[in-house]
Amino acid sequence: MSTFDSATLAPVKNVVIAGGGTAGWMAAIALVKLLGKSLNITLVESKDIGIIGVGEATIPPIRTFHKLLNIDEKAFMKATQATFKLGIEFEGWREENHSYIHSFGVTGRECWAGEFHHFWLRAQKLGFGGEFGDYCPELQAAKANKFFTNESMPLNFAYHFDAVAYGRFLRTLATEAGVHHIVGNITNVSKCSQTGNLTSLQVDESQEVNGDFFIDCTGFKGLLIEQALHTGYDNWSHYLPCDSAVAMQTETVAAPVPYTKSSAHKAGWRWQIPLQHRVGNGLVYCSKYMSDDEAKSTLVQQVEGEPVNDARFIKFTPGKRRLGWNKNCVALGLASGFIEPLESTSIHLIMTGIVRLMRLFPFDGVTQSAIDEYNTKYDSEMAAILDFIVMHYKVTNREDSPFWQHCKNMPIPPSLTHKLNLFKDTGRVFLDDGDIFRVDSWTQVMLGQGLTPNQYHKVADEMSEAELERFMMGLKQQVDIQVSRLPSHQAFLDKYLAVNSRA
Ligand code: FAD
């Protein structure tokens, strides 16, 4: 039943965004460009409280977001020192000396009855077929450090970029498009004593910023959604043991590869994100099994180039806000929760939150039905990502440290147990409604982590053994030929970014 009386609904005209990190500026640019004629948008950010500055790896739907906002790719890439990303290499996740790539794109060919991996599984049983990744152009291009894109060769890709520069880039576009920008510290959040809705932000001592609707992008602290509205947080640390990270940027020592590197260590994992001008590095770890000092010294020993800044520690609690939308406030970015940096889903979730909010935008007043719709979708999206991330820790042969022994024995969500059993027993992949990862992703990671199905779909038996062998060889040859013609990632970047952009 609706808790809002439609007769008393207050129209929404003035939107206030609190926070100017990636989430704040993504929300600002999207709202002003797409709904700017109906809304006044103000963004308040502190110059004293910095942004988190570490979210630098993305997944392909960010390109759709940029297209929607008419953001010029070359201008964006130049401004943010971006490189192309075709996937993630997982080193030491299945066992210490093993690595695989989870790439974007399609592996093999899609078939209406059963996915490509069933044909590959049958080929494996018959003793041919090679590696699963042999059939994915994005994966092979990543391995060969190659890249190319145009309309006739649509590799599926995302970007690595400098997060601070991305915020600056979006800020310029958003303020030019009409976002009112206030720099100052939010010192108080006022609420209506009757409805509990937010009414204004006190900025420093001098300014009160009133709003009809608020977007909380203040990072982990959730100044509006938590500190003012006491929404509550679902803590998922029983599923996700890592709670700390130490980050450091280093000089570039080699041409950037078109993939993120994720290397497992005895108490978590390490990331390497190559940009044009530097590399972003970080060690993610579980504080129960590794001290901050050990984490920092491990990172310092393992980075390849000279550090360009001091190591910075970040503490987090994996989980999500109980409600992504509460009263007249939506939380985006870290204010709405944080699962884990593995698989680079956080910036993507900012985007899906923005799109969902825009579709449900309460121009004529906030209704409970819109809030419920937003939160149901938000919950299912977060739950599906949780399953996908937990799988990396759970499906492994590693037991070589107390951390990995903990992962082996930790509980997992029942929905993930079902997905793993289904794949193991039948080779079938189950996707939740809100799942942002496709069958290709689930299959690559489950196989990569060492989970091999006992069965395959019998559609693969429709071919004779000889036909199957020809089919597989043909597909592999196509991939090999396509990849052999690609330039190196660096050569492509140099050429592509030398051509003038719109902005
Ligand atoms: P923040 O960057 O923390 O910004 C908060 C803003 O709020 C700032 O502008 C600050 O000034 C403002 N603010 C706070 N308090 C006040 C106040 N009182 N008054 C005024 N302003 C205030 N995501 C990915 O997609 N890919 C990745 O590879 C990735 N890696 C990550 C690695 C780690 C270790 C972590 C912790 C996160 C990672 N993320 C990643 C997540 C990503 O960093 C965030 O989703 C993204 O940066 C958005 O952050 P944010 O804007 O929500 O918060």
Automatic annotation (TrEMBL):
One of its GO terms (molecular function) is nucleotide binding. The active site is at K85. L-tryptophan binds at E343. The keyword Flavoprotein applies. The lineage of its organism: Bacteria, Pseudomonadati, Pseudomonadota, Gammaproteobacteria, Alteromonadales. Pfam families: Trp_halogenase. 7-chloro-L-tryptophan binds at K85. It comes from Alteromonas profundi. FAD binds at G20, G21, T22, A23, L334, I347. Keywords: FAD, Flavoprotein, Nucleotide-binding. The keyword Lipid biosynthesis does not apply. This is Tryptophan halogenase.
